[in-house]
Amino acid sequence: MNAGKALYPLGKVKQIVEAVGMGVSYAHEDLVFLEHNGFLLEFTDSDREILVHLNSEGNEEELIDALMQLQNEAVSHGLQFSEGCSYRLSEVDEENIRIEFLEN
Q1: Block means of pLDDT (10 residues each) for the chain, length 104 residues?
Q2: pTM for the complete prediction?
Q3: Longest dimension (CA), the chain
């Protein structure tokens, strides 16, 4: 374990995501990718707050509804899922993707 590196509550986040019928597909550093890429979760400096970024290519109404479900479930686990910004994914090459965060 690296000294000074934050420990994120990934297990708790996975429980929340699965409780609303979604799944985690990949976690890297402070980002958690959900299946179907509708959302991208980002751990913050707060141990209780997680930003939820919305895929700009998704159906906004469906994403907002799902975000509300995530937020309600997070509260029961002592966490807060706050709406972040929109993002867009693009493929750089076969092994890498680019995440572009967009201004709301």
Answers
A1: 62 95 93 90 93 93 93 96 94 91 83
A2: 0.86
A3: 42
